[in-house]
Amino acid sequence: MLRALTLFFPALALGLALSSSSAPAAETAMDPAKKAACIEACNACLQACRECVIGCDCAMCEKDCLTCIETCQTCVALMQYESALSPKMCGLCADACEACAKACLECGDMPCCQTCAKACQRCVETCRAMAG
């Protein structure tokens, strides 16, 4: 049953894999305002990345956008149930978003890439704040 769940919910699989590391057992309280801002920024970022993947023919940023989408989705999931792993995931998400923003800025003047880069940069800020 657990195997079937992790097949359909990759965030669960990642959470289970990370929980076997040296993560703290106790849940940590998250600042509600920071959490809400980060979730909002992650959702906006993954939407901008989806639109960039669909609307852009640039192979330079596609991989980074896809990575960013998956990372933001997992980050949101862990924050929603206030996992003790959220700060680590927020740090990883910030790294992925930073790489995506850089790749999209290198694409040139494509409107979707410019929008994506801005959303990614905002997500970097909020995720770094959550990561501590």
Structure description:
- By secondary structure, the chain is mostly helical.
- It has a single domain (31-131), classed as Substrate Binding Domain Of Dnak, Chain:A, Domain 2 (Up-down Bundle), CATH 1.20.1270.
- It is built from six helices and no strands.
- Helix 3 (32-55) runs antiparallel to helix 6 (111-131) and helix 5 runs antiparallel to helix 6 (111-131).
- The protein is elongated.
- It starts with a helix and ends with a helix.
Architecture blueprint of SSEs:
Blueprint: H1 2-8, H2 10-19, H3 32-55, H4 59-80, H5 86-106, H6 111-131
Q: Tags for this entry?
A:
132 residues; mainly alpha; single chain; Substrate Binding Domain Of Dnak, Chain:A, Domain 2
Summarize the structure.
The protein is built from 6 helices and no strands.
Largest sheet features: none
Helix content: over 70%
CATH class: Mainly Alpha
Give the low-confidence spans. 1-7, 16-27
Strand content: under 5%
Return the average pLDDT rounded to an integer.
Answer: 84
Secondary structure tally: strands: 0
Please tell me what the overall shape is.
Answer: elongated
CATH architecture field: Up-down Bundle
